[in-house]
Amino acid sequence: MSDRPAAGGPDVAVTGIGLVTPAGLGVRENWQRVTAGEATAATDPAFAGLLTDISCRVPGFDAARELGKRKAWRLDRYTQLALVAAKEALADAGLTPGDWDGPRVGVVIGNALGGTATFEEQVRNLVVDGAQTVSPMLVPMAAANMVSGYLAMEFGALGPNLVTATACASGATALGVARDLLRSGACDVVIAGGAESSLSPAIVSAFARMGALSRRNDAPEAASRPFDAGRDGFVLAEAASILVLERPDHARARGARVRACLAGYGASADAHHATAPDPQGAGAERAIRAALADASLTPDDIDHVNAHGTSTALNDVIEAKVVERVFGQHPAVTSTKGVTGHSLGAAGAVEAAYTVLALENGVVPPTANLDSLDPEVSVDVVSKAPRHLRMKAALSNSFAFGGQNAVLVFTTP
To answer: Is 168 annotated in the active site?
Structure first.
């Protein structure tokens, strides 16, 4: 891998990826569906009668089969997803927990809302059946910090153990924080990413009342349509994405395969509004430019942008204008949320994994359901079919409620 130092320190090696998303269980299945542009949104019986009755759920996920009945019973679904994704990532990295120096291994996971499904279920128990029916496991299941705690317990990771909560930027923020731990020398390995499963009636109803969700209930497969002129909101999803990050010298010493390098990270705040993005995209632009500077790259060096691209009216146009301001029409832009929907705190980590895979395979996935590009969007958005492209550097955007922005730059090793 390159010995070129980034502005903030050496690049960080990505040596393992694990994915559990609506696009499938595992990296192979995910990449096949994402590059095919096959949307995953479907009618959700759990939301029958609500303003929006569609979602993007992980297909065929059986926690008891994957983790064993006892362990599955003790974990909220978002932690179950994270644990399965982490196992795949560690296997992909060729790391065996127990064979490593535990205090040198950290865990940083992004999560926006914690175990909302468990919390909602137990509140219902309290109201309907009384206090004696509330599970004693409610707090350790629903608390946002427990996802990283459980991963540490499972794998014997004894180093820094953190959860980042920056709403829809949480997963990207987690990777940035993990990068900092590695650059500082605090860790040799960090298990990092995002996990979310907030597909509960209350959360769906709240987002729908806010006007954030698509109400294309009669055609769910076409509901998530980033950058399309007919978009009307995002589709709520669940997912987990875990990347194994390592110090370059540690990866080299054990002969690890380096899939990509995390070369840059930038973060900023809009300080504008609780839910709406800055109309000028100033905060997003600062984060992008900070990530480029951190990676010692110029805008012309970026071949591909995995956009935040939520399929909401404001976000897509503002982001497109920011990308055009920074990069012109040079990079190939996509939003993989057209396939996966929006998994909130996991989304940034999911899209980071897809960005690594795009670099590795020389393929930019198409933006699903993009039939008519919004006339205010003038960047080069890939649609209809994947684009084969030789790439050296790619960027992944994550922007969030509260105006929290996180941007990651990946390069080929």
So the answer is: yes
